[in-house]
Amino acid sequence: MSFIHDDFLLSNEPAVRLYHEYAKNEPILDFHNHLPPNEIANNRRFENVAEAWLEADHYKWRAMRANGTPEELVTGNGDPKEKYLAWAATIPHTLGNPLYHWTHLELKRCFGIDNLLGPDTAEEIWEAANEKLKSPNFSARGMLEKFQVKALCTTDDPADSTAEHEQIAKDVGVSVGVYPTFRPDKAWGLSNALAFLDWLETLEEQTEREISTLNDFLECLAKRVNHFHEIGCRLSDHSFPTFPSEFTSEDDARNIFAKVLNEKNASPQETQKFTGFIMLFLCRMYAAKDWVMQVHLGPLRNNSSRLLSIFGPDAGTDSIGDWNQAESMSRFLDKLDNEDSLPKTIVYNNNPADSFTVATMLGNFQRDLPGKMQFGSGWWHLDQRDGMEEQLKTLANVGSLSHFVGMLTDSRSFLSFPRHEYFRRILCNLLGRWMTEGFVPDDIELIGGLAKRICYSNAKDYLGLKIG
Q: 3-state DSSP helix/strand/coil percent for the chain, to nearest 5?
């Protein structure tokens, strides 16, 4: 029997029915990923499977380093085939890791290849996959159509050009809605004044306005929010160790901003105050425009200074952080809620020790619409079977699983859409287990309807995106 067989990860009869009759054929709405919009605009074709599979994938990089792979074949300038062979040599050592499942799901669903990847099959799989990549169906757009992706949201800085998104929107050959997500984290990077000023120059170019005061800066951010909205953006995205909880006056923020304009680094406390000030400013706009604010909470980034100096950020050296989340989260959400300016919110938690804290805190601020405050799917280090199940069970225990908006890839690869299948199988297996245990009614239509909503329609209704 194939490893990736029809009932993969489905360990009970109700799970099999839930998946095949209700979840399997739902379309995909991938509302958070890091796909390059230029590759969709230009309908990128991949020269080989190493290009399609290994570029910018820090999950794979971590596994390869753990297998003793030289950095030249991880993030360096090594030959693409040698990098692929190093990955093939790594895969047999990832049993129990989601990478093992993702890899074989991608081989099966993307290329129709049913072999286990390893040193003995690497050459055969290299040739077979590369032959498939020659087909137009395996271009960037071809992969989106293959997996029934109705809409996707890339991750974009306010200073980024949106020309590719606008090009895609006008292209009748693109059936998928491709929208930017507003990711303004550099807007409070005041601890490195020179880097911030470089970014500010790019923002000036995009807005065609000189920034010499705090007011100029706020108006430029607002202009970019308005522009993103005009081209279909309905989500923002932010990553913090903890929620901002230091709020300051406009006068204080103006003084901090002026200090950085004079090429002086802001202190940690000044940076925290400025972050809180800017986030409140932005959140009020998000709420007014009915956007969804996403917060990725809790990572400790760039732990290896050696790899940071060689490669830069996102090299695969980030870990789960260990901070007190409750008080700062409460203070931030409560301030906006009291102003009637709290936008729809999805919080993705990185530390499993904080899951009940985050989920119960979000429940304090539900209002106006079903599932306004979302406890997001298992993210990053929790993006695996145990993490997904625990997220689903936590939400069911202290919130409303029925209104959950479901899965996203958070990926940089066009081959990663089978991760939605992976999530759907795990979801259906959990629901099926509950049915067999008598924990929920043995009612396939009732539970099947729940599965369908989580897989697609809840996100469609919640996000407000124009669906392709």
A: 55, 10, 40
Residue 451 CA to chain centroid, in angstroms?
A: 21
Orientation of helix 80-90 relative to helix 58-66, angle to 10°: 70
**Does residue 264 sit in the same domain as residue 368?**
yes
Domain containing 167: what range?
Answer: 13-44+139-463
CA distances from residue 42 to 36, 39, 51, 161, 280 in whole angstroms, order as listed: 10, 5, 16, 15, 37
Tens-place pLDDT, residues 394-452 = 999 999 999 999 999 999 999 999 999 999 999 999 999 999 999 999 999 999 999 99
Q: Which of 183, 162, 166 is nearest to 174 (CA)?
A: 166
Do residues 231 and 26 lie in contact, with contact meaning Cβ atoms separated by under 8 Å? no
Q: Among 393, 364, 363, which residue's Cα sits nearest to residue 378? A: 393
pLDDT exceeds 90 at position 56: no
Q: How far apart are the first and last CA of the chain?
A: 37
pLDDT at 320: 97
Q: Which two tokens stand for residue 310?
A: 């060689």
174 and 82 belong to one structural domain = no
In this structure, which amino acid lies at residue 236?
A: S
What secondary structure letter does DSSP report for 182? B
| Cβ–Cβ under 8 Å, residues 87 and 54 | yes
Residue 289 neighbours by CB distance under 10 Å: 16
Is residue 301 domain-resident? Answer: yes
Q: Say whether 299 sits in a helix, a strand or coil.
A: strand
Could you tell me if 68 and 32 lie in one domain?
A: no
Question: What contacts 396, CB < 8 A, 6 or more positions away?
Answer: none
Question: Residue holding tokens 């087909």?
Answer: 135
Is residue 259 located within the same domain as residue 114? no
- Total domain count, the chain: 2
Contact status, residue 107 vs residue 117, Cβ threshold 8 Å = yes
For the chain, what is the mean pLDDT?
A: 97
Do 158 and 130 lie in one domain? The reply is no
Amino acid at 69: T
Find the CATH number of the domain harbouring 225.
3.20.20.140
Give the chain's radius of gyration (CA, Å): 22
Distance between CA atoms of 36 and 56, rounded to whole angstroms? 11
Q: Residue 372's CB: how many other CB atoms inside 10 A?
A: 17
Contact 233, 181 (CB under 8 A): yes
398 neighbors 359 (Cβ within 8 angstroms): yes
Whether the model clears a pTM of 0.85, i.e. scores above it, the answer is yes
User: Measured at the alpha carbon of residue 393, what is the angle toward residues 355 and 104, in degrees to the nearest 5?
Assistant: 95
Same domain, 376 and 400: yes
CA 108, 112, 116, 119 dihedral sign is negative
